[in-house]
Specification:
- There is one protein chain.
- The chain is of the alpha/beta class and 367 residues long.
- The protein has a single domain, classed as 3-Layer(aba) Sandwich (Rossmann fold), CATH 3.40.50.1820.
- Strands 1-11-10-9-8-6-7-5-4 form a nine-stranded mixed beta sheet, sandwiched between helices. Strands 2-3 form a two-stranded antiparallel sheet.
- Strand 4 and strand 5 form a beta hairpin.
- The longest helix is centred in the middle third of the chain and has 16 residues.
- The termini are far apart.
- This is AB hydrolase-1 domain-containing protein.
- One of its GO terms (molecular function) is hydrolase activity.
């Protein structure tokens, strides 16, 4: 797979030639914002954070593209929280301002937000959590829970709310990517008092949901899922994808700018997936065709929602995602041009100011 790898130790950003071509104001003008346009601040263009992917990160040295008042260092702490007896890894930074909780997508972890945490922490308290079963959080075997599925959006929604209660100790904004968007919506419905607003980045459409499968294909899909879950085929399949080359190929499918798929990014995604229990969680979730859909959750949410979409996402087509802009709860649908499925990592210079402006509109003023 052809890809230009960046040798730095940070998760990559869009190259400067790309940043210069696309001004932030263009990406949010009337051709890209559908329905309720609002004032949006211009971005900070920042370097990615250099980090040991398991421990901590700091903002890289300031260059000429950075604002002069950007601090040269932001400490990001890595902590463990005990939830229902399980160890949960999270990262946090910032000491003042509204609280943000960043929620990753399928197969990812809180390291996927390393280019967002230090920037957002300049004016907010930022937390990024590894959902149970992912990253460096514990991975209980789903078979330990009998016939009742454990890895569900209800489980993760409860985890997110308890995290806000126990760790954040405050109301919070949920900033979510892919399946993390369903986690955020589910949590907001379960405990409306906790969530102040949700920003959905390329939320998963759940195209393999049972209601979206053609009736004639359901028996075949179910049989294949049972084969993966209950035979050695599943572990063989996982072993074939849990390699650096396979992970890189998968990431290059969902990143529009494949030069952003560095060896460091591959490592950050792959290594937690090699820990004990990861294969069982992986197989359990790809066989999970039940649970809620975004279109079922959005009407139930009471807090403001902003939807943003990388328009080059091959997995969650923007043509289908636009429909989410029609829900009353959704204040805007924002197109992120020339960006794939993981905008927070591929285009942080677009996502970070979008998060900041959304939070600023809905944060409770302090006097």
């Amino acid at each position: 797979m052809a890809s230009t790898s960046n040798p730095s130790v940070s998760l990559p950003e869009l190259p400067q030639r790309f940043v210069r071509k696309i001004s932030f104001s263009t990406s949010f003008d009337k051709t890209h914002v559908f329905r309720k346009s609002r004032n949006v601040v211009r971005p900070r263009i920042v370097d990615g954070c250099e980090a040991n992917f398991r421990l901590r990160c700091s903002v890289a040295d300031v260059d000429s593209t950075k604002e002069k008042n950007t601090p040269a260092h932001v400490e990001v702490k890595t902590c463990i929280w005990k939830w229902k007896g399980y160890s949960i890894r999270y990262q946090c930074a910032g000491s003042s301002g509204p609280a943000l909780v960043l929620v990753h997508g399928f197969g990812a972890n809180s390291d996927h937000w390393r280019k967002n945490i230090p920037v957002l922490a300049q004016s907010q308290r930022v937390y990024a959590i590894d959902l149970i079963g992912y990253g460096y959080s514990e991975k209980p075997n789903p078979s330990d829970f009998g016939s009742d599925p454990f890895y569900t959006f209800e489980t993760w929604g409860a985890q997110l709310n308890d995290f806000c209660t126990d760790v954040v100790k405050d109301e919070a904004f949920f900033i979510c990517n892919s399946i993390g968007g369903l986690v955020g919506l589910q949590a907001a419905i379960m405990e409306p008092r906790i969530c102040k607003g949700i920003l959905l980045l390329n939320i998963s459409l759940r195209m393999l949901h049972i209601t979206k499968q053609p009736w004639f294909g359901r028996p075949l899909i179910r049989a294949f899922q049972n084969l993966l879950r209950n035979t050695a085929l599943g572990k063989y399949f996982f072993k074939s994808v849990a390699t650096p080359d396979s992970v890189k190929n998968i990431l290059c499918q969902c990143y529009h700018d494949t030069s952003q798929v560095t060896d460091e990014l591959v490592q950050a995604i792959l290594l937690p997936g090699l820990e004990p229990g990861a294969v069982d969680v992986f197989l359990e979730f790809i066989c999970y065709s039940d649970g809620p859909l975004p279109e079922e959750l959005l009407p139930q949410v009471k807090c403001p929602v902003l939807v943003a979409w990388g328009d080059k996402d091959p997995w969650e087509p923007i043509q289908l995602g636009r429909a989410y802009g029609d829900f009353d709860t959704v204040e805007d649908f924002v197109v992120l041009p020339n960006v794939g499925h993981c905008p927070q990592d591929e285009a942080p210079q677009l996502v970070n100011p979008l998060v900041e402006s959304f939070v600023a509109r809905h944060a409770t003023p302090t006097y």
